[in-house]
């Protein structure tokens, strides 16, 4: 990203290729695309042959989200109003976002393009007269002018690229690699709503220039914590010679025998640019404290679950040098209180139009629903409750499906939640080490959402579950919320995840489940007398007076 703009986008592509397909697609562009791909450069190349002038939302987004745009000017480039409108958008992004622009001249002299002479200029004038109003004509004309360029003359054979041309293409690729900031982290394809969250944190960091600034990013699983941390890192990392982003701390520490040591070695390598052998976590922590003391650092630890993990990976971050920034993402608010962070970024549900826009990008590849799918889309978005993970997973699943298939999916979601979403959310539940806390969570999912905390606490304490501390732990872990008037609440998808855990314990026989809350299941068990000793509680409504009863 460029540092020239205060509202930089988060790049989703390294390079956008602008070219007239009939002139260059099967020659220069195909060769360049292969060379860019081989170099690991993420390139957006539009494979369609377009008519008309209006650019679609996906193409506009590709241009806006590209770090570098390559403009391949050819003799008959100006015959394509599509190319000219892409060019205009590229130059707009160059001015507003600091996007890097690399012009390449294929079988046309740069001076011809800059001065709009010869056939190139004549065709441009004809296009201006044919298609566009005065202001846009002027825009096309200005966009075709100068700057520093790569000049590639006609160096093509009938059978393919010549060795000289191939060498020049490779030189261009190497130049692009140098321009690309390889320290930036890749983020999600559609970062809707990310900008505002990111800038609030960056604004706070800017107020702490001479101290060690400790930031916590807290929220329920898959709410966008890691994406937000990456966006902040991408925005500020150039200010730090010493920097490191350690991802998936929980997963590495839990799944690898020497996971903590592995992460310590990665951190030392990132900061010191040397390989370090570590024989134990304790020795690793000592080495980190000694080597990092007094240095200005940017360190991000993603998905931390215990204070021990924090201590192992950074010791005492207050010993870092002035101006250092230390960022932790976690599902546990208590952890942030224990290390006394300076600022907590709380991940809330997406607001206003953002959920529908994010869902639409995944379901339709545009920022709003297509015709006849608006109401269905709003129903899905309401089900997802502003959770980015659910919007992405379910939106992608529905992409390209018929209206009838959409309706079928919605009916299924009412009874059986999406397995991909549930799998990710269940990590938070599985992370509860206390079985009583798990029981309290499942009880709230099935029976107590919207109920008074004191009322619920009294009932659960009577069952020996120590609900005073248990509910507090669930709140700290972002599994339960305390809402207005001290009522218990939680995200609908967390509720569904908890209920699915109960349902899966006996998918076909409700009488063997620990909790019953669904009317048909309760009715079936009571009328057929199929209940077992597994049933710990059930909730039902009397049809006549609509009163609710809980048996526990």
What report would you give on this structure?
Helix 1 crosses helix 7, helix 10 crosses helix 11 and helix 12 packs across helix 13. The chain is of the alpha/beta class and 552 residues long. The protein is 50% helix and 14% strand. The N terminus is likely disordered. It folds into four domains: 167 residues, Toll/interleukin-1 receptor homology (TIR) domain (Rossmann fold, 3-Layer(aba) Sandwich), CATH 3.40.50; 153 residues, P-loop containing nucleotide triphosphate hydrolases (Rossmann fold); 62 residues, no CATH class; 127 residues, Winged helix-like DNA-binding domain superfamily/Winged helix DNA-binding domain (Arc Repressor Mutant, subunit A, Orthogonal Bundle). The radius of gyration is 29 Å and the shape is globular. It has a five-stranded parallel sheet with strand order 2-1-3-4-5, with helices on both faces.
Task: Write out key terms for the chains shown.
Rossmann fold, ADP-ribosyl cyclase/cyclic ADP-ribose hydrolase, 5-stranded parallel sheet, 50% helix, 552 residues, alpha/beta, EC 3.2.2.6
Give average pLDDT, whole number. Answer: 84
User: What's the shape?
Assistant: globular
CATH class of the largest domain: Alpha Beta
Enumerate how many helices there are, as a single number: 24
- CATH superfamily heading of the largest domain: Toll/interleukin-1 receptor homology (TIR) domain
Total number of domains: 4
Looking at CATH, which topology of the largest domain would you report? Answer: Rossmann fold
């Amino acid at each position: 990203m460029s540092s020239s703009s205060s509202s930089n986008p988060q790049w989703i592509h390294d390079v956008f290729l602008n070219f007239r397909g009939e002139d260059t697609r099967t020659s220069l562009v195909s060769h360049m695309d292969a060379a860019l791909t081989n170099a690991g450069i993420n390139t957006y190349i539009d494979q369609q042959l377009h008519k008309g002038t209006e650019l679609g939302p996906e193409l506009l987004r590709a241009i806006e989200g590209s770090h570098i745009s390559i403009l391949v000017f050819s003799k008959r480039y100006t015959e394509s109003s599509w190319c000219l409108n892409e060019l205009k958008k590229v130059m707009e992004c160059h001015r507003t976002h600091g996007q890097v622009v690399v012009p390449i001249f294929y079988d046309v002299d740069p001076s011809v393009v800059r001065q709009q002479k010869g056939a190139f200029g004549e065709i441009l004038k004809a296009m201006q007269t044919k298609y566009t109003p005065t202001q846009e004509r002027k825009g096309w004309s200005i966009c075709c002018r100068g700057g520093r360029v790569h000049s590639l003359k006609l160096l093509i054979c009938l059978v393919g690229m010549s060795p000289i041309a191939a060498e020049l293409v490779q030189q261009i690729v190497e130049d692009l690699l140098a321009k690309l900031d390889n320290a930036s982290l890749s983020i999600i394809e559609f970062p809707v709503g990310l900008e505002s969250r990111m800038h609030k944190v960056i604004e706070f960091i800017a107020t702490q220039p001479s101290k060690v600034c400790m930031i916590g990013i807290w929220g329920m699983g898959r709410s966008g914590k890691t994406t937000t941390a990456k966006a902040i890192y991408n925005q500020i990392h150039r200010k730090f010679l010493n920097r490191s982003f350690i991802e998936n701390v929980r997963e590495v520490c839990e799944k690898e025998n020497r996971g903590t040591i592995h992460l310590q070695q990665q951190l030392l390598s990132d900061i010191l640019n040397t390989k370090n052998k570590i024989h134990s976590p304790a020795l690793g922590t000592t080495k980190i404290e000694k080597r990092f003391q007094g240095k200005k650092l940017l360190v991000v630890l993603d998905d931390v679950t215990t204070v021990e993990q924090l201590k192992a990976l950074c010791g005492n971050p207050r010993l870092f040098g002035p101006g250092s920034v230390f960022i932790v993402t976690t599902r546990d608010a208590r952890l942030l209180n224990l290390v006394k962070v300076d600022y907590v970024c709380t991940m809330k549900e997406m607001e206003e139009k953002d959920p529908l826009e994010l869902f639409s990008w995944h379901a339709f590849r545009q920022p709003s629903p297509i015709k006849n799918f608006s109401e269905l889309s709003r129903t899905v978005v309401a089900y997802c409750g502003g959770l980015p993970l659910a919007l992405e997973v379910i939106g992608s699943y529905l992409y390209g499906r018929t209206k009838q298939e959409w309706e079928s999916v919605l009916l299924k979601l009412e009874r059986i939640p999406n397995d991909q979403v549930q799998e990710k959310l269940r990590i938070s539940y599985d992370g509860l080490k206390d079985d009583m806390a798990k029981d309290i969570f499942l009880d709230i999912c099935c029976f107590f959402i919207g109920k008074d905390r004191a009322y619920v606490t009294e009932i659960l304490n009577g069952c020996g579950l120590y609900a005073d501390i248990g509910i507090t732990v669930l709140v700290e872990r972002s599994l339960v919320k305390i809402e207005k008037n001290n009522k218990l609440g939680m995200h609908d998808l967390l509720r569904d995840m908890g209920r699915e855990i109960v349902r899966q314990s006996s998918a076909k026989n409700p009488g063997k489940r620990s909790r019953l809350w669904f009317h048909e299941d309760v009715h079936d068990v009571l009328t057929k007398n199929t209940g077992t000793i597994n049933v710990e509680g059930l909730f039902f409504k009397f049809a006549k007076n609509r009163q609710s009863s809980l048996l526990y």
